[in-house]
Amino acid sequence: MKRTSAQSLLFLALGAVTILSVFYQFRLGKNLMQTSSSVGERELPIYSVEIKEPKIALTFDAAWGNEDTAKILEILDTHQVKATFFITGGWAEQYPEDVRRIYAAGHDLGNHSQSHKNMSQLSGTDCRKEILAVHDKVKELTGYEMFLFRPPYGDYNNQVINNVKACGYYPIQWSVDSLDWKNYGAESILQTVTESKELRNGAIILCHNGAKYTADALDSLITALEEKGYTFVPVSELIYRDNYHMDHTGRQFSDEQAVSVIPINEAAAASVFDLSK
């Protein structure tokens, strides 16, 4: 009789834990299963992505000059790497054939604003104009509808992020800065990226097509990253398009990742019954 009672208590306990687990996951999941770029009161762009695979994204901001664009495209083609180019409207106007070449080669075309201004200093109307002006230019040149936006200088605030999203764009930042814009040399670029503490799965690397030593460093940089086991994908293939949320560092997570790893403990179980939280 004692054995039967013990078994019954065990089954009851397991059943209670199961019910609590399902209810708690549903309750937490209900909050998470929404596309959200907010953390507390802050709206964040995507700095990097939480993924299991050793995939990273190589990006180039194109705002000034095109002297090395052909060489960069040639190196990317040699390594069969697809990258993401964030272009300004002024650059697209000055180098329309390069815009077409980038697109024809299978790379992402991203929006970098019309005139490379500090977006946080603009009104909401002007912010949207800066975005949509480039969108229309690139669509006219290639037929492509862009949906990735990188704010010039990495400058943003809540209003900028909300306006970016209102234009149908994902705001994209970076987690690894090559510092190629400082013109320290090709070896410096290689060292800065490969030794970065933020170089990990889902990293987004910032480079510039017009920086002095970027093209010189690119072949060695790609080779070194491949030797570390990384493969390259454009940002459009790296990010989650929906059902995602961010942490305070701007790292993007799939909501499924959060819901699937939910600890059930006494504190969590107790909180289930406090629906005021």
Would you kindly provide a written description of the structure presented here, covering whatever features stand out?
- It is a single chain.
- The chain has 277 residues and is α/β, with parallel strands linked by helices.
- 45% of the residues lie in helices and 15% in strands.
- It has eleven helices and 13 strands.
- The protein has helices spanning 2-32, 69-78, 89-94, 96-104, 124-142, 158-166, 186-194, 214-227, 235-238, 255-260, 266-272, and strands spanning 38-39, 42-43, 48-49, 55-62, 84-87, 108-111, 148-149, 170-171, 176-177, 204-208, 231-232, 244-246, 251-254.
- Strands 4, 5, 6, 9, 10 and 11 form a six-stranded parallel beta sheet that branches. Strands 3-13-12 form a three-stranded mixed beta sheet.
- Helix 5 (124-142) packs parallel to helix 6 (158-166) and helix 7 packs parallel to helix 8 (214-227).
- The radius of gyration is 23 Å and the shape is globular.
Please provide the ordered H/E string of secondary-structure elements. Answer: HEEEEHEHHEHEHEEHEHEHEEHH
Counted by DSSP, the helix tally is 11
Distance between the termini: 42 Å
Percent of residues in helices: 40-55%
Strand content: 15-25%
Low-confidence stretches: 6-11, 13-34, 259-277
Structure classification = alpha/beta
Radius of gyration: 23 Å
- Mean pLDDT, as a whole number? 85
Shape: globular
The counted number of beta strands is 13
Sheet with the most strands? Answer: 6 strands, parallel
Q: In terms of quaternary structure, what is this?
A: single chain
